[in-house]
Amino acid sequence: QVQLAESGGGLAQAGESLRLTCTASENVFDFNYMGWYRQVPGDRQLVATINVGGVTNYDDSVKGRFTISRDGASNTVYLQMTSLKSEDTAVYYCKARRARTDYWGQGTQVTVSS
Fold first, then answer.
1. Tens of pLDDT along 70-109?
2. In whole angstroms, what is the distance from residue 56 CA to residue 40 CA?
3. Contact 84, 16 (CB under 8 A)
4. Residue 93, CB half-sphere, CA atoms under 13 Å: how many?
5. Alpha carbons 9 and 30: distance in angstroms, whole number
6. In sequence order, what are the residues at sequence separation of 6 or more whose Cβ sits closer than 8 angstroms to the Cβ of residue 46?
7. Sequence-ordered strand ranges (E) for 2-89
8. Strands 10-13 and 108-113, bridge-based pairing
9. What CA–CA distances, in Å, run from 53 to 48, 64, 92?
10. Helix or strand run (H / E) with residue 11
11. For residue 62, how many other CB atoms are within 10 A of its CB?
C-alpha cells in the first residue's frame, strides 16, 4: 500500500512563503505523476503536478508563485509557495497516480492571514 506523508503546513502572513513536503513510501518515479491539491468548501482543486518526465502543470491561480519539484533520492515531492495570499488558505493534499489508481496523503493545513 502506497503511503504519502505531507508536512510543512502552518500559519503564514500574506506575502510570506511556505514549503510543503510529501514523502512517498515508494520511488516517486514509479508513479505516472504526483501533485498537490487543495480542499476548499465543496471542491478539491488541482494546484500543481509533475509527471514522470518532469513536466509540470499549475493552476492559473498559483502560476509564478508556486513551484513543484521532486527529489528521487528521498522519494519526496515539494511545493514551494511564495507570495502567499489569503485565498491560498486550505488543506493541501499530496496525490500520486499509478495506472488508474490514486493515492492520497492525509493533508496538511495552510492558513494565510492578511
1. 999 999 999 999 999 999 999 999 999 999 999 999 999 9
2. 22
3. yes
4. 16
5. 26
6. 35, 37, 57, 59
7. 4-7, 10-13, 18-24, 33-40, 43-51, 56-58, 66-71, 76-81
8. parallel
9. 15, 21, 23
10. strand 10-13
11. 22
